[in-house]
Fold this protein.
Amino acid sequence: MLRIDYLQVPGLPALSFEVPARECLAVEGPSGCGKTRLLRAIADLDAAQGYVTLEGVERRELPGPEWRRRVRYASAEPAWWGAIAREHFPVSAKLDRLLSALALEPAILDRPIAELSTGERQRLGLVRAIADEPRVLLLDEPTSALDAQAAALAEELIKFQMLAGRMVILVSHDPAQIARLAHARLLLAEAAPRKPESAAA
């Protein structure tokens, strides 16, 4: 269980909500209303008063890097610090399977980041977020640069993460995607999530 209590993100009212294991909470609201700021605060990337607790451990009880290993923020346009993709991934037997799940060839890891398309970088960013198996995925527009086929593959991978016991908080401007993935929704003007009209099965 991921639990947020009275989290005070600049520009937003204090927020309290929970995300159970194997479920996805969609955060909704117009552009610029603070959805990304909320995800970054939960990941302890930006300072925010209040409490964020994962499976009984509050974020301030852990060093920042260890918290972010468990609670992973993935932006729509991920940042890269190395010249090639392989420099950003842990050695893992699961890596090829994750790449294949998003229709990416293993050879893409040795191509220069600068030569990859926006969609390829976005899919690699999702793989990077998942590869070391965090407990929580904070996904900020994870398919915004993908065509319908690639987006469908990404959604299946996200669903599998939930089946594996992870918690997902999703920001998406696609109502159909929210209907397919989310078990509950949070409007930033509200203090508690509500059930969606069409929840994912």
Summary: The radius of gyration is 16 Å.
